[in-house]
């Protein structure tokens, strides 16, 4: 069992604005969020992630690609490249990729399409996927106005909503064996029958 508990948070300003060490005091939290970053920018600096040899990587990227009017396929390809590179460089790391967050409602269908592709792809590199859309979006796809002042960046309530999903997801991910060894968890009923 490894003693490492380093968790690297990577992404754009949404990640950069997080107080990860305070929010996850039991981890060695490393914040590699960079304001304004795109999938292309993150690909260029992925070697920084590998230098920390983290046990877990938490990824949130793509919203700036959306703002730059990149095609869905281009954004998806960028996120897939990041995930493939992380898996190659860190074969035993646990990877948690999060859905691109909602923005203004005019971007809703575009972002949903990106998230559908990333969700489908994540398992192919043994990454876990966290869908933040239900907790962050209004019915029309707008980022919940209670969580933002500019339809993009999060305020304290926005980070609190994000953490309400991220904390249990990260606990689940870190409770699993290294993802280089895929497993299927038995259903609770099967476990109870074995114990009985």
From TrEMBL:
Name the InterPro entries on file: Ester_Hydrolysis_Enzymes (IPR051532), SGNH_hydro (IPR013830), SGNH_hydro_sf (IPR036514)
Q: Where is the SGNH hydrolase-type esterase domain?
A: 9-161
UniProt cross-references to Pfam families, sorted A to Z: Lipase_GDSL_2
Protein name (record): SGNH hydrolase-type esterase domain-containing protein
């Amino acid at each position: 069992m490894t003693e490492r508990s380093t968790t690297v948070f990577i992404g754009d300003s949404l990640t950069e604005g997080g107080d990860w060490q305070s929010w996850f005091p039991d981890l060695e939290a490393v914040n590699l969020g960079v304001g304004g970053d795109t999938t292309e920018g993150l690909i260029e600096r992925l070697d920084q992630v590998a230098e920390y040899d983290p046990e877990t990587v938490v990824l949130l990227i793509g919203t700036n690609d959306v703002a730059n009017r990149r095609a869905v396929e281009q954004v998806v390809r960028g996120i897939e490249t990041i995930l493939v590179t992380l898996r190659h460089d860190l074969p035993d790391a646990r990877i948690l990729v999060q859905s691109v967050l909602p923005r203004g409602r005019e971007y809703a269908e575009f972002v949903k399409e990106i998230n559908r592709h990333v969700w489908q792809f994540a398992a192919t590199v043994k990454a876990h996927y966290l869908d933040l859309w239900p907790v962050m979006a209004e019915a029309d796809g707008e980022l919940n106005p209670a969580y933002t002042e500019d339809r993009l960046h999060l305020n304290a309530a926005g980070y609190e909503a994000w953490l309400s999903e991220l904390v249990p997801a990260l606990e689940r991910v870190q409770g699993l064996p290294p993802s280089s060894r895929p497993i299927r968890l038995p259903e609770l009923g099967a476990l109870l029958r074995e114990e009985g």
